[in-house]
């Protein structure tokens, strides 16, 4: 056991040294203001990610131009729109630029810069659909995007037209749901839907723009006045110089159509090999992030679970009660709720930022550690009590008897459960994409937002998970045999 303990300690040190800096912002010029800006990178033509990882779009090109003329630097963090909004509210980010409509409700929580683009909501259906107007949506299911103007508009007319709503976190998923027939229509901002159709999405718009509103750059209400002032001043300058019109025309204008298509990095080529080759670097980065979180998460969760298991069989009723309570709470909390609580809830309460990587690892440790603690405690209790009594009768103290007699046998009994938990942890990392961690699942989402090849990309992602799980299972089985 000492040998394995040493190996675990070395692993922890290596991962903490090698990966601990992932949640730390990149260096920036000390003489310039620096901000963290969140964005939804699945919202073309306003923001999306190219195959080389570069974030582009109307919003992001505009932000780059404003930062240049106003002499500030920034770090972009892509995540789902809903999570991005909450990140700013929690103080985890300084501002949000994500095609965010300015509404009276949002003005209660956000300060907005100068409105920069006016848009309206349209309804789109599959090309083969016979639906031509809103009245034909009665008793049917429509797709909407969480937290958007399209969601609000659909909600406002739901009773009038009698349809059902299903919400999704990104536009590409919403389009796929309509194309596959799981919903009959999608509610989306007009320029976003028009651009998607222009790029080959098999949908058609059946309504005129409704519920028109302006997009705005937002910061937490009462905070970051300097950032808002810089945005407004910079926006005024790029409008006066004509640079803003050039940016919009690049993506939405007639002469910009060819340029925008080229930015998709060959997305018109939809063969399996082409898709994989174009996104090989992105897949590799996402897989590496998944493995980092999995290994570091399971190592720390195992140590935490072992401690909970030992506490669960302690002579003290209070210590056993603490162990039982911790296991009960963190096994009962859904992982997504726990991730949001750590990443968004705690900063709201304390005012201190929590890096996304740190929040993700802490989520895995608390959740997976609770399950490990439960089966480790069960493994210790399954060892015949007579062995402990025999050890005590030979003069061994309680602690030494546990370490030398009970724990080694209990650990061996739980090895299959450890193997299973390792695999579960790998799959659970996909949930952490909700707080902005670009692991393998989020990588798939970003690629699909660009090339709209949902079936092929998700199949590739699924195969990668299966291959890694198979390799980890072989490794775990080898370790199990070595420890017997």
From TrEMBL:
Molecular functions (GO terms): ligand-gated monoatomic ion channel activity
Domain annotation ABC transmembrane type-1: ranges: 287-476
- Can you tell which superkingdom this protein's organism belongs to? Bacteria
Q: Which CDD domains match?
A: TM_PBP2
Name the membrane topology term. Multi-pass membrane protein
The entry's protein name is ABC transporter substrate-binding protein/permease
Keywords of this entry:
Cell membrane, Membrane, Transmembrane, Transmembrane helix, Transport
Tell me which GO cellular component terms the UniProt record holds: ATP-binding cassette (ABC) transporter complex
* Protein localization: Cell membrane
What Pfam families is this protein classified in? BPD_transp_1, SBP_bac_3
What SMART domains does the record tag this protein with?
PBPb, PBPe
Question: Known InterPro entries for this protein?
Answer: AA_ABC_transptr_permease_3TM, ArtM/GltK/GlnP/TcyL/YhdX-like, Iontro_rcpt_C, MetI-like, MetI-like_sf, Solute-binding_3/MltF_N
Q: Which GO terms describe its biological process?
A: amino acid transport
Similarity remark? Belongs to the binding-protein-dependent transport system permease family.
- What organism does the UniProt record list as the source? Weissella diestrammenae
Transmembrane parts of this sequence: 287-314, 326-344, 356-376, 431-449, 455-475
């Amino acid at each position: 056991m000492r040998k394995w303990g040493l190996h675990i300690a070395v692993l922890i040190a290596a991962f903490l040294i090698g990966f601990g800096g992932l949640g730390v912002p990149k260096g920036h010029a000390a003489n310039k203001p620096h901000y963290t800006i969140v964005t939804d990178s699945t919202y073309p033509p306003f923001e999306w990610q190219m195959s080389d990882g570069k974030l582009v779009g109307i919003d992001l090109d505009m932000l780059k131009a404003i930062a240049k003329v106003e002499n500030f630097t920034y770090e972009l963090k892509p995540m789902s729109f809903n999570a991005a909004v909450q990140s700013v509210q929690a103080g985890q980010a300084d501002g949000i630029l994500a095609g965010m409509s300015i509404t009276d409700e949002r003005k209660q929580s956000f300060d907005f810069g100068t409105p920069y683009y006016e848009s309206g909501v349209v309804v789109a259906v599959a090309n083969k659909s016979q639906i031509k107007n809103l009245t034909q949506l009665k008793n049917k299911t429509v797709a909407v995007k969480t937290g958007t103007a399209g969601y609000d508009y659909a909600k406002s007319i739901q009773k009038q037209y009698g349809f059902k709503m299903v919400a999704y976190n990104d536009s590409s998923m919403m389009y796929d749901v309509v194309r596959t027939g799981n919903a009959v229509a999608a509610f989306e901002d007009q320029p976003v839907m028009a651009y998607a159709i222009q790029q080959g999405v098999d949908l058609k718009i059946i309504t005129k723009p409704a519920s028109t509103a302006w997009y705005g750059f937002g910061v937490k209400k009462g905070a970051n006045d300097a950032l808002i002032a810089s945005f407004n001043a910079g926006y005024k300058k790029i409008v006066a110089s004509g640079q803003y019109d050039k940016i919009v025309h690049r993506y939405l204008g007639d002469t910009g159509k060819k340029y925008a298509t080229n930015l998709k990095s060959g997305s018109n080529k939809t063969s399996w090999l082409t898709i994989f080759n174009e996104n090989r670097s992105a897949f590799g980065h996402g897989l590496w992030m998944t493995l980092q979180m999995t290994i570091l998460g399971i190592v720390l969760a195992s140590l935490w679970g072992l401690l909970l298991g030992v506490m669960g069989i302690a002579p003290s009723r209070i210590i056993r009660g603490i162990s039982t309570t911790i296991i009960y709470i963190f096994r009962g909390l859904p992982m997504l709720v726990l991730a949001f609580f750590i990443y968004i809830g705690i900063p709201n309460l304390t005012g201190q930022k929590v890096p996304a990587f740190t929040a993700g690892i802490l989520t895995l440790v608390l959740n997976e550690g609770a399950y490990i603690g439960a089966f480790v405690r069960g493994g210790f209790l399954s060892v015949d009590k007579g062995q402990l009594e025999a050890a005590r009768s030979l003069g061994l103290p309680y602690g030494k008897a546990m370490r030398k007699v009970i724990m080694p046998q209990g650990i061996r009994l739980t090895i299959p459960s450890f193997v299973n938990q390792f695999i579960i942890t790998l799959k659970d990392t996909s949930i952490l994409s909700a707080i902005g961690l670009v692991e393998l699942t989020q990588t798939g989402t970003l690629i699909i937002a660009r090339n709209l090849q949902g079936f092929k990309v998700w199949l590739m992602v699924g195969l990668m998970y299966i291959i890694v799980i198979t390799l980890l299972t072989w490794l775990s089985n080898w370790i199990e045999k070595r420890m017997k």
